[in-house]
């Protein structure tokens, strides 16, 4: 008995110490997650709870330093939070959110990053000025960044000059803002020339520098430039040729460009046909151009991978430049999707008129869909009350199936909308509850999708109004009304309907939606409305952004900055996807990306192609960036993306944390063990009581043995 109690006490003590060794949560990372949403994208906490937890909108302060409250809300789908966030936050991120809610006024110092760290100018003839290159100074901190002086020094300082840019001596850069500094290169001698651009400031380190490099040319040379560094044939059907893609090759140098070889190589070279005006033995004059065309004709399913290589006498490119040729080929196959993927009616009064919701079925395959049947299985209280689906559905087309719920007895009801076709079988789960109590009966005036007129980037389309009515015999409250989906930031929601608004029996409220595109191309979002009775409604919002005509390259980046929060050194690097969108009217070729700090690009088959690559007007791709701290403390850095003399900057930050399994307990910001800052940990109290019991038992047993 003595040994058993001792073992229990030891185990309890070890448990308490292990609990206290947990790492403290990162309130700054929690702030970023709260305002920006999950790293993988989607709705933000601020969209439902307001810009600061201090306002306690929807009772958010109940989660202050309480990660379990947030996890419980996700698990129970409280206010539709499960639908928005289940599986999107890690346990550490949930702890960070709780820490920020407990400390909404968390602040940080200014942090400066100057990127790129090197500006390399194209070769220029002696005495001739090159095109300007720019670097971006970003304040990724939370306080003003004050600039001291901007200067150029070094061995060949006289070959470089400052000119243009928005950074000036004595300027103040607000938190999250940036400015640019420009330099030009006019070589005074042949060969490699180098200098250093220095900006002094009040951030850590006191100054930031950029290396300046250029080459003075004594004789004219040819320079090659491509209109595209990659060609994506897209999704193709086997046996069907792709459209012809054209790459323009331009000689931007001062001497004739001569090709020594033009070839296609790689695993898919046999299915690529090459043509065009570029040819070996046909020089391209200075300032002139020629074209190379390529076409793919896949014979089997799989990935298309090949390379177009042009070898020449150009002074750049290392003797040859390569254009990646990619795409996918698939055999004809049907596919079917449903929106929403589940239907929730909530509570409905027995004997009342049936509640209805509509499911949109879409053909997402590459051949015509043959529909065998559309019906409802499960409870007889759920029926198919309408359908626009015929025997076939064209590629990209959709149809609607309406289901009704009229309970005849109390209790939960489950059913499914089942669709049989030449695609894999599809079932949409349906839930509801029958009750004899008075209940609300919410219904939207339309089922969507809501399509907006084509709208110029930065402008707004006409508002669209949707009505939420309550034909039941009890009031309802709106628990959640928020935007999610792919591009929630391109749409605006207003009207009299809002979270926590009550709608009495027979009353209505309105939801106004507007389209304000931030980038060109197709944009979409999902409007989610959840009532306190459990009913959920989805409205799909669609629009097309029209690019503003500009002459300079235009690239939209979302988000433009990101804080990775606290990351343990040596752990798996967290990643963030940054969407690059060509919002201009002409194709933009991104020549490269320069990283500073412990940040780097992460290879991802669903992300952007390898640099250099070209984005067509309205096109977008995701640049995937990882954070791998090598030392403890704050990290700052950036990604600078180049296109000729134009650059764009993404400010990055994070906090490296050393792994300390035996560290003292800490609960700053609400994370870590259960010990609070006033040291009232119930676990410690329990351990103390248990220890006293064991000591007393041992003394009593010892005294008894001495008699």
UniProtKB/TrEMBL annotation:
<protein>
    <submittedName>
        <fullName>Choice-of-anchor D domain-containing protein</fullName>
    </submittedName>
</protein>
<keyword id="KW-0732">Signal</keyword>
<feature type="signal peptide">
    <location>
        <begin position="1"/>
        <end position="24"/>
    </location>
</feature>
<keyword id="KW-0408">Iron</keyword>
<dbReference type="InterPro" id="IPR036909">
    <property type="entry name" value="Cyt_c-like_dom_sf"/>
</dbReference>
<dbReference type="InterPro" id="IPR052614">
    <property type="entry name" value="CFAP65"/>
</dbReference>
<keyword id="KW-0963">Cytoplasm</keyword>
<dbReference type="InterPro" id="IPR009056">
    <property type="entry name" value="Cyt_c-like_dom"/>
</dbReference>
<dbReference type="Pfam" id="PF22544">
    <property type="entry name" value="HYDIN_VesB_CFA65-like_Ig"/>
</dbReference>
<dbReference type="InterPro" id="IPR013783">
    <property type="entry name" value="Ig-like_fold"/>
</dbReference>
<keyword id="KW-0479">Metal-binding</keyword>
<feature type="domain" description="Cytochrome c">
    <location>
        <begin position="25"/>
        <end position="105"/>
    </location>
</feature>
<keyword id="KW-0966">Cell projection</keyword>
<keyword id="KW-0969">Cilium</keyword>
<dbReference type="InterPro" id="IPR053879">
    <property type="entry name" value="HYDIN_VesB_CFA65-like_Ig"/>
</dbReference>
<keyword id="KW-0349">Heme</keyword>
